[in-house]
Amino acid sequence: MKTLLVACETISDEVVQALDRLGLGYPVRFLEGGLHRNPERLGECLRGVLGEAEGLCERLILALGWCGGGMDSLSTGSYETVLPLADDCLTLLFGSTGARRSASAPPTYFLTGGWLRDESSVVKDYDRTARRFGAETAARLNRTVWEGYARLGLLDTGAYDLGEARREVTPMAAELGLEVATVPADLSWLDELLLGPHDDPGRFLRLPPGARLSFSSWKPLFSG
Fold this sequence. Notes:
The chain is an alpha/beta fold. Helix content is 40%, strand content 18%. It is built from 9 helices and 8 strands.
């Protein structure tokens, strides 16, 4: 079956590594990581991607989550569509929704190498503010944004340089009083998404051609 993969740049290192490890040659379209901060823009982008996939594949795999509603009301084309039942793409790197929840205590903002490279990442936003107004002002302006978090969590996926990532985030973390923690990853869910099978209805949404996405499929994730 001819397969096309669409994934977020936030997990691009992990996706490329997994495709190589699993011996899969799927063509990949990576979406700008910053789109997940704007679900409306993400939805517009995905509508275009779903339309462009028409005639190019028999199966479309979306390595994306609900992402604040970016998936809502999208219609697929004449191909099977498979996607994980995850709140966002980073949850794929924990192996399960439950593992993500457990790792979120204390309250943690999770990061990957791909997310740190994105120009709209929280760290780059902070650095730009610090360069313009100074570290003290940047910290004061950002404390309200970060007051609900206790730490920054660098996901240890083995796909990027953790030491370099830690050096990049440490100055901001120190100014904001946040711990920098290394959090173990589990790439089994990502591997299963890429390789199949996709028979577990609690982990995957497998849609026939001409389907429509709606919040009802993801609702159980947010009802507990």
